[in-house]
Design goal:
It is built from one helix and 13 strands, in the order E-E-E-E-E-E-H-E-E-E-E-E-E-E. A 13-stranded antiparallel β-sheet has the order 6-5-4-3-2-1-13-12-11-10-9-8-7, with helices on one face. It has one domain. By secondary structure, the chain is mainly beta.
């Protein structure tokens, strides 16, 4: 990270990638922008997903003011998915914590994070804002780069049920943007009994440090 003020107000990035809803469902391409608070785990991810040749969904996934939510609308108008409540708070806070490599200044901040060494190349991180508490474990290589993240359980929607499910992500292809080194390629998977189900993969195409908080 470049030298400068100890606190970073926020970061912004642009992504391109694809996602899917189930192992037997097709991949759907997306383009997205994401705003991340410089400390804490607040973020807003806004994406356009091509669900079919002439069908687009607009998705907002966020953790803001201590609350998590997801809203998806076809053509930006017709609601097709919505998630709020305690499970969404935990799931989105965990996503925000796992994505610290895209707000690397947060690694040198104090509260609201707790850190613990879990062995060679393993770094435990806990976020607790007094209302939501989540934990992940980062895998760090010999050059200090985060290359993976895992969680023992994250809320996963399965029909009308929410199931606590092991979860993992991978980071790779580090690049430097304006003096900040961060991973540009990532993928995320649910660890199901039958094996890993990778449901999201993407690439950072632009990045910058920005004033203000996620909005």
């Amino acid at each position: 990270m470049p030298a400068g003020p100890p606190r970073c107000p926020g970061t912004w990035l642009r992504q391109a990638g694809e996602l899917r809803f189930a192992p037997d469902r097709p991949w759907m391409p997306f383009e997205a922008e994401q705003w991340l608070d410089g400390d804490g785990v607040g973020f807003r991810w806004r994406a356009r997903v091509r669900m079919a040749p002439l069908v687009r969904a607009h998705v907002v996934d966020a953790f803001e003011d201590g609350r998590g939510f997801l809203v998806a609308r076809l053509f930006g108008v017709i609601p097709v998915a919505r998630s709020r409540g305690p499970a969404a708070d935990v799931g989105e806070a965990m996503r925000g914590l796992a994505e610290l490599p895209w707000r690397p200044f947060a690694f040198r901040e104090g509260p609201p994070f707790e850190w613990a060494a879990h062995g060679p190349g393993r770094l435990g991180a806990v976020f607790d804002d007094g209302r939501t508490r989540v934990a992940v474990e980062f895998e760090v290589d010999g050059e200090g780069r985060v290359v993976g993240v895992t969680a023992a359980a994250r809320p996963r929607s399965a029909g009308n049920a929410v199931i606590e499910t092991p979860w993992a992500g991978r980071f790779s292809e580090y690049r430097e943007f304006d003096g900040v080194r961060l991973p540009t390629v990532a993928e995320v998977s649910w660890i199901l009994p039958e094996g890993p189900f990778t449901y999201w993969r993407g690439r950072v195409t632009e990045f910058r440090v920005r004033p203000g908080a996620a909005s």
